[in-house]
Amino acid sequence: MTRKVATLPMLLGLALLLLLAFPLIGDKFYLQLLSKIMLMAIFAMSLDLLVGYTGLVSLGHAAFFGLGAYALWFLSPKYGAANLYLSLPLAIGVTGLAALAVGLLVLRSSGVYFIMVTLAFAQMFYYYALGAKWMGGSDGAYVYVRPDARLAGWVPFDLGNYVHFYYVALLLLALVYLLLRMIVASPFGRVISAIRSNEGRTRALGFPVFRYKLASFVIAGALAGLAGYLDAAQFGFVNPDLFGWRLSGTVLMMVILGGMGSLHGPILGAFVLVLLEDYLSGATRHWLLPMGLFIIFAVLLLPRGLRGLLAKPPAEAADG
Amino acid sequence: MSDEVVFFLIQILNGVQYGLLLFLVASGLTLVFGIMGIINLAHGSFYMVGAYLCYWLAEATGSLWLAILLAVPLAILLGLLLEALLFSRLYARDHLYQVLLTYGLILVLEECRSLAFGDDVHGVAIPSWLDFSLPLTQTLSYPVYRLFLSAACLLLAGCMYLVIQRTRLGMAIRAGSANREMVQLLGIDVGRLFQLVFAAGVALAAFAGMIASPIASVYPGMGNQILIVCFVVVVIGGIGSIKGAFLASLLIGLADTFGQILMPQLSGMTIYVLMAGVLLWRPAGLFGRT
Questions:
Q1: Pairing between strand A237-238 and A141-142?
Q2: What is the per-residue pLDDT across B20-45, written as a single tens digit (0 to 9) for each?
Q3: CB atoms within 10 A of CB A134
Q4: How many C-beta neighbours within 10 Å does residue B220 have?
């Protein structure tokens, strides 16, 4: 165990160095692809807090991703830029509030009900966005100008510049990773892990289980909102598919494929899945067929995710 | 009768017809979960497979009845095949993996559909002797095929009731949804039971797709749309409860139909609001066990 603990930060540090140096060699296409991967990695890590740490399998996490994206669209003036320092916290706050409202309802159910109910709520958002003319309906809407990062006349970076955006995404990825590391290592993190392993016993110990689950749901929702905000900022476009269950399924696949309950696993999953998607969709119009087969075989053959290929099975107590 | 009253009655008929159709799909979903403990996201895809099989065979044979007669055994075969290849490996696994594998299956079935039939919307002709409407007032009438559809669904629901309540197999099914482990311990061949239930669920969903195809047409994404509505049905009715699925289907059918008339802008959301209400009131559904 001691060896593994020592190598993980080294591997992560190496990955960080590679990502920091990548703009020296990468062209625009790959930098934008990597930015996309990093924002999906934030999204996947936020879901991992629910699935891997709290034991809540949500199939509607895209609801909050979409909400974060639409929040940026809503806060952007028609042909002007939204203030980054105002719109980003607002977007995260609104998504967190939405997660609180949704969580109050969906957390009344558990297990397989929870899966169905989260999916159904995300569909509710989806259908609303699809039908709402003021949100652009099924055509979606454009964020014409990227959020403005000006601080009292000084411009530290420009989100319209793809290299700058890449570094901002990398910075946020690192910050979210550290934040979630701190959360899962905190007493709060211990309690949600306890809920995952044995909810009844945790309740018997006197912990207000519902409130802990709700807090975890809100944090995960707010971080998904951050990822969605970045998505809208990167592509300048929002549409109802951002709420869709294809995205919810994909991000769940990232978490499982990478290895849930580890935080770096979902990052790995995001890399593999986005790259695979990019490769397959370039190779054939019917790329969902090989993608589906890949998912089926991954479930049948890799019960512990890609991470399971690299490391020995951990003792049960290691993550509990 | 005035036009308003007749219009109202027609909407009730439409709502009931939609609800009965939903029941055929949702009953399979709830049975497969209640007995086998499997959450099957691909269940809606079987509805789509049924509709496309029906479209294909009806084009080839020129008869809707012949198409249904040929397509139902094919659907059962598909069910048995998938159970043997994929689902039998999922019984011992966590719901999480069931969700992912069946999600992968949706993508595969959807793309196979796209490869075989393209992405256009297709129609299936109503058999000529059912292709007329009953005149109700000067301006309003009701299509007979919809009445036939409701009758067929009711007939099937009645058969299901008899099988589940009155036969040995039904006894095993009821026992299985109450306590799976106990049924295994009592020496019932669970493997066979699972095969049967799964194939029946696939056949029911596919059959629903077949008889719905003349009025709902055949289009990409139809499976996912009905799947999510069925989730709402199962959540409201209580997982594993056939009775709950029946009542919730009718409720959703009527709520959706009237939602579209009364609040056209928000019609997509009616059933979800209903679901949220039921969750607040009874988190395990109307007939669910907590």
A1: antiparallel
A2: 999 999 999 998 888 888 889 999 99
A3: 7
A4: 16
DSSP 8-state code for residue B126: P
Residue of A nearest to B228 (CA): A120
- End-to-end Cα distance, chain B: 47
Helix pair A187-197, A162-185: axis angle to 10 deg? 70
Q: Which amino acid is at B29?
A: L
**CB A307, CB A262: distance < 8 Å:** yes
State yes or no: pLDDT of A219 exceeds 50.
yes
CA distance A159 to chain B (A): 35
The 10s digit of each residue's pLDDT in A81-135 is 888 999 999 999 999 999 999 999 999 888 888 988 898 889 889 988 988 888 8
| ipTM score over 0.95, yes or no | no
How far is the C-alpha of A283 from the C-alpha of B102, rounded, in Å?
Answer: 24
Determine the Cα–Cα distance for residues A198 and A193; give it in Å rounded to an integer.
9
Q: Are A88 and A262 in contact (CB under 8 A)?
A: no
If you write DSSP's letter for every residue of A175-188 in order, what string do you get?
HHHHHHHHHHHSHH
Chain center to CA of B110? 17
pLDDT at A4 > cutoff 60: no
CB-count exposure of residue A22 (10 Å: 0-12, 13-18, 19+): middle
CB contact under 8 A, B99 and A130: no
Contacts of residue A246, Cβ cutoff 8 Å, sequence gap at least 6 = none
CB contact under 8 A, B228 and A288: no
Contacts of B228 in chain A (CB under 8 A): 119-120, 123, 245
Whole-number Å distance between alpha carbons of A41 and A173: 7
Q: Do A256 and B104 touch (CB under 8 A)?
A: no
DSSP code at position B134: E
Q: For residues A186 and A156, what is the distance between their CA atoms, to the nearest angstrom?
A: 33
Question: CA dist A63 to A86, A124, A263, B206, B251, Å?
Answer: 22, 9, 21, 30, 26
| All structural domains of chain A with their residue ranges | 29-242
- Amino acid occupying residue B231: F
Cβ distance B275 to A113 less than 8 Å, yes or no, reads no
The H-or-E segment that residue B141 falls in is: strand B141-143
Do A120 and B228 make contact, defined as CB atoms within 8 angstroms?
Answer: yes
Q: What Rg value do the Cα atoms of chain A yield, rounded?
A: 19
Two tokens, residue A174: 């690192």
Read off the amino acid at residue B80: L
Give A144→chain B minimum CA distance, Å: 28
Q: What was the pLDDT predicted at A237?
A: 93
Is A294's Cβ below 8 Å from some Cβ in B?
yes
Asked whether the beta carbons of A313 and B136 are under 8 A apart, the reply is: no
DSSP-assigned letters across all residues of A105-161: HHTTS-HHHHHHHHHHHHHHHHHHHHH-GGGTGGG-EE--SPPB--BTTB-S--TTS
B48 close contact with A: CB closer than 8 A: no
What's the sign of the alpha-carbon dihedral A300, A304, A309, A315?
A: negative
